[in-house]
Amino acid sequence: MAQQGRVTAVLGPTNTGKTHLAIERMLGHRTGVIGLPLRLLAREVYDKIVAARGPSVVALVTGEERILPPRAQYWVCTVEAMPEGMGCDFLAVDEIQLCADPERGHVFTDRLLRARGLHETMFLGSDSMRGVIADLIPEAQFIRRERMSTLSYSGSRKISRMQPRSAIVSFSVDNLYAIAELMKRQKGGAAVVMGALSPRTRNAQVALYQNGDVDFLVATDAIGMGLNLDIDHVAFAGTNKFDGRRMRDLMPNELAQIAGRAGRGMSHGTFGVTGEARPLDEPVAEAIMEHRFAPVRKLVWRNADLRFGHIDALINSLEEPTSDERLVKAREADDLMALKTLAREAEIRARASDAKSVRLLWDVCRVPDFRGISHNEHASLLEGIYTHLHERGSIPNDWFLRQVKRIDRVDGNIDTLSKRVAFIRTWTYVAQRNGWIDDENYWRDETRAVEDRLSDALHARLTEKFVDRRTSVLLRRLKQKEALLAEVNENGDVTVEGEFVGRLEGFRFQADKSAQGAEGKTLRQASLAALAPQFHLRADRFYNAPDTEIDFTEQGGLMWGEYAVGKLVAGAEPLKPMVEVFVDDEAGPDVAQKVQRRLQHFIDRKIAALFEPLLNLSRDEELSGLARGFAFQMVEALGVLPRGDVADDVKALDQDARGVLRKHGIRFGQFTIFMPLMLKPAPTRLRLVLWSLSKGLGEFPEAPPPGLVTVPAGEGAPQGYHAMAGYRAAGERAIRIDMLERLADMLRTEDSRGGFEANPDMLSITGMTLEQFADLMKGLGYNAERGERPKVKPEASAEAASEDVPAPAADEAPAEAAADAPAEPELDVFYTFTWGGNRGARQQNRSGQGQKTRRDGGAPKGRRQGKPGGKQGGKPRQDKAKSFQARPPKREKAIDPDNPFAALMALKEKS
Question: pTM (2 decimals)?
C-alpha cells in the first residue's frame, strides 16, 4: 500500500461540515480529487467548486457524465470513477463507512487502502470507522467533528399531522408514490427524490422543496448520502428494505445516516416514524440521538490485483480470498456475474484469447445494470457491445442510433419515463468510455440531450402527479403571512398568485370543484383571505351601480347582472318586503351591510315606481269612512279584488265614495274591482312575488306571458293566484280581467234569461273559438246549450242575376230537375247561452233590453222565439239577434253602471 503525504480521517455524525471541510482543504492545494458516493452529490459539490473557482479548472467525472476542461485542476468524481495514478496533491473520499456496504463496499475499501494524495489524503465518514482505519492505516490522524445541532426522537406521527419542512422516507417505490399522493391531497403536494432519478430530475424536484413550492419531501434512503436539504423532521414510513438479496431491518447507524438529514446547520432537527412503521426501540432511538454505534469490524474487499491473461485467470483473481481478518470477501457483484455468464459463451471465449481482449471484456462487464430488467437481459446487451468493439474497434453509429432512438420519447407515465431514463443511462455510460464509439463528443451530447428531455418530462409528470402547485403556493403564502394577490376578471374567475382558485359569484366565492377534502378547505381558506380587498371593492361598485343593473326574479331572488346577491323575504306588510343578502361571512359585516342597504333601496324604489297608484291611494288623507276601509282592502290585495269577495262592501259604498275611489283609477267591474294601471306586465310580475312572499309559498307561481287575453287555467295553482296575475279562471282557461269586463259590457245587452248567441265581437275580444267561448261562459255561470241548424247560403248578387244564362233544352229538363232534388243540408253548430246563476230578475234588469222586449210584446218568458229547431214560415229564422243589438238610450244624469238596479232605473225614467 503506497503511502504519500498526510492521511487524515475526519469522523463524526451527520451535519458536522465534513464535506465542506474537505472542499476547503482541496481548494487550498494546487490540484485535488474528491470521490463521492452518489452521482447526485458529485454534481452538487461540482457546482459549489465551479461557483468558487470557475468552470475552466473543475472536472466532473461520473459513470454517465464527463466534463473535462483542458486545464482541469480539481476533479469531482463518484468513487467508482476516481482516476488512478494522477499524482494529485489532495485526495478525499466521502462516506468512507460504505466500506462495509455489501454491494459497493469493495470499491470504497480499495480507495481506503490504495488511493492517496501527494500532500494530503482525507477520509470522511462515521465515527464507527475509527478502529478499523486505525488498524489498516496506522499513520492516519483522526479529527472528531461534533454535530452542529441536536437531533431528537419525536415518536410516531400521522402523515396528516406532519409538520412542514419534513421528509418522509420509504424504501418501497410503490409505498413512496402512495405517500406522495396522500401528501398532495392533504398538504398540497410533495417533492419526490429517488436514487434512480437523473441529476436533472432530482435537482428540479429538490428545487420545488428548497424554494418552498412544497413543504414536504418523500424520498428513499438516497437523501442519506450527504445531500444537504433544509429538513426539520425526518419520518420513517418503514424501517426495513430489500438489499438485493433479502428483506432486512436497517441497522441503527443506517437509520442515523438518514435521520441526520434533519436539522441542518445550527437548526435542531427531529426524527420519528409514520404510517405503518412501528416506533423505534428506545435503545435504537437513544443510539441515533447520541451517535453511538457499534464499530465496524469488517470491511468488504475484492482483489484489485487482476490478471488479464485469460478469462479464467481474471475470474480467479476476482474471487481470490484475503488473508486479512479485518477484510471480508465481497459477494458476487453484477460485473463478476456478467463476466461468468459471458465466459460460458463459446464465441466470447474465442474472442477473449489475449490480455487486451480480456481487459476489454472486463471493461464491458463493468457497464452498470441501470435497467434492472434481468441478469440475462443485461448479459445479452453486454455481449452485443463486446462483439462490436472486438470486431470493429468501436460500436457502429447506426446500431447505437437505433438503441437511442427507441428511448427518445417523452410520452407515457412516471414508470415508463423512469425506465427510459434508466435505459438512456446505459447508453450515456457507454458514450463516456474512451474509444468505444466514433465521434464521442457528438454521442455524449446526444445521449445527454435525450436524458435531459426524459428528465424534464419525468419531472413534469412527478410534479403533475404529486404536487398541487396551486394549493402549495397558497399554503406557503399563508404560512409566511404575506399579503396574497387576488385578481378577478370580468367573468368572475379568481386567480390568487396567478393560480386559478374558483369563481366570485356576486359576493359569494365558489372554490374550484376539482379541489376536494382538505385540499378544498385549504384552497377556500387561502382564497378568501386573498379576496378580502376584492369584496370591499366590489361592494363599493355595487353600491354605486344604477338600478338598471339590478333586478328581481320571479322566485324573489335579487340579481346583480348574472349574479345572485340576495333574496326578498316577507316583511310586516306585503308592500314592505325585507332583504336577505348572499355574502360570504369572510367578506365581513361592512360588506354585508352595504349590499343589504343597496338592495333595500332598490326594491323600495321599484315598489314606489310600479305601485305608485296603489301607494297614492294608501296615503290619501281625504278618504274617510267606508271609502277609507275599502281603500285599505284594495292596498292589501295589491290592486286586484274579485267582486264576489267584497260584494257587501261594494253595496255599502255610496256614489260619492265610489267617485273618490274612481279618481284613484279604481274600476268597479262586474266581476273584478281593480286598478287598470296595476295590470301591466311589470307591476303584475312584482305583485306575484310580493303576494307569494306574504303567503309564505315555497315555490312562487310565475306571471303569464304578457299580451295574452286568455291562458290555460291550469291545475294546482294556489288560491288567489289568477286574480294576482290579472286573470279570472273560467272553465279550462283564464281570461284577463280587463277584457272580461269588456265582455261583460257586451253581455249586458243580451237576453240572458231568454237566451242569446255569441256574436263575432264576443269571439273577437276573447280570441276564442266557439267551443272555447262556450266553456268560458260556463265558467262564468252561464248555461250553454249546443244546437245544429242548416247553414244558410248567401243569395246570388245582382250582378250575377243580370248575366245572360241560356235556357235549358227540353231534353235536359228531367236531368236538371233531378239535380235540383233536395240534398243533405250542411249543418251549422251554435250555442244558446242563458244565465245559470242565482241572480234571476237582477240579471234581466241589468240587461235592460230583455225587459223592453217583453214590454213591447216580444217573445214570452221561457223559450226564445226562433230557438233552434223552430220554424218561421217554414224557414229558419234569420233575424234572431237583431232585436237585441241596440244599447239603452243615453240618460241625462249619469247612473252608476255597477248598481244592480241601474237598468231598471233607466226604464223608469224612460217611462
Answer: 0.60
